[in-house]
Amino acid sequence: MEDRIRASTVVVVVLSTASARSDYVRKEIHFGQEAGKLIIPVLLRATEAPLPLADLQWVDAREGRDPLAGLVAGLRGETSPALRAPEVLPQPPKPLELTLTIERSDDDLVANVAFPEEGLRAGPIRFTPPIKSSGLDELRWYLEQYPRWPVGPDVGRAERLESRLKDWGVALFQVLFGTVDASRLWQQFRGESRRLTRMPLLTLDATDPDALRLPWELLADEEGHLFALGISLRRRVQKVQAAQRVTFGLPIRILMIVARPEDSRTPFIDPRASPQAVLKAVELLGTENVVIEFLHPPTLQALDERLRDDKQPLVHVVHFDGTAFT
Length: 326
What we know:
The chain is an alpha/beta fold. It has 9 helices and 14 strands. The protein folds into 3 domains: 2-84, no CATH class; 96-236, no CATH class; 252-321, no CATH class.
C-alpha cells in the first residue's frame, strides 16, 4: 500500500466507523502526509471526524449529504463549502504569570520572585521551610490514606490538620513575600489579575527536594488561598540546558517504571491510568511501531543498569509512575 501511495498524486480515503478507528488506516494517512500527497478523506454513515482528520479538509458523505461537489473541489485543490474544514479553536490568551525560582544555598533555600510582564523582581530571599517534616507526614496521611476511610477516630485527627492549613499557607506566603520589595511585587500582580481577564498563574521553578515537597498550593495572603483567589499554580523543573533533538528509527521503545512503597501504610494506587497520556501520544504510529517494556525491579539501580546495557535495545522514552511522596 505504501508503494501505491508513493506513486499516486491524490489519496482518497473512504472511512466507515470501523476504519476511522483503525491503526492501519491512520498509519496510511500519516504516511501520505509525510510523502506530501493530497489526502481527501470521505466520511460515510454516522462516522465522526476522527483523529487522522485533525489537520485535513474532509468530504462529508454521510446520510443526506452530496459528496460530489466536495470531492471535485478537493481533487482540484480548491476551497469549497462542501469541504468540511476542521474546527480551529482560538488560542487562549497568555496567562498573567508570576515566577518563583527556588535554589539551595548551603543550609538555606533561596527564592527569587519575578513579574516579567512588568519587569519587576524581588530577591534573593533566604528562608528555611516553615513546615516541619512531621507536618508534611501528616499532610501525606491526610491526602493519601484518610480519604479511604474518613470515619471514626481519624476524623478528629483530620480536623486538627485542617485547622492548620491556613496557618501553613500564611507561613509559606510570609517567607516569600514578607519583604517590602516582594510584598509590593505581589500587590502589583494581584492588582493586574483583578483588572485583566487573563488567567493569573504562579509558576514554581525548583529542583531541591526540600522545596518541592512543600505544599505551595496552600499559599495564602490576607484574602485566602491561591485557589480561592483564582490563581493557578504550575510546578516546573528547572532545565540547565535545552534538550537536543534526536532522530531515530521505529519502533519506538518506551520503558515503564511503576514504583510503589513497600510499607503497608501506603494505599494501592492503580497504575493503569498514568500511562494513558504516553500511549495516546504514540497512538498514530500504530501498535506495530511501539514497544512497551516494564522495568523489574522498579529501582534506581535497575534503571541505571538497563540504560547502560549495550546488549539490549535502545530506550527512547522513560515513563516513571510513582506516588506523590516517594
